[in-house]
Amino acid sequence: GSLWVITYGPHCPVGGSDKLYQITPDLKQIVRAESVGGTPANRLIHRETNQLLIGPYVIDAKGDVRVVPPAKMPGRLTGAARHLVDPANKVYVATMETGLYELDLRTLVVKTLIRENGKNDSAISNLLKMETKE
Question: Is 119 helix (H, G, I), strand (E, B) or coil?
Answer without folding.
Answer: helix
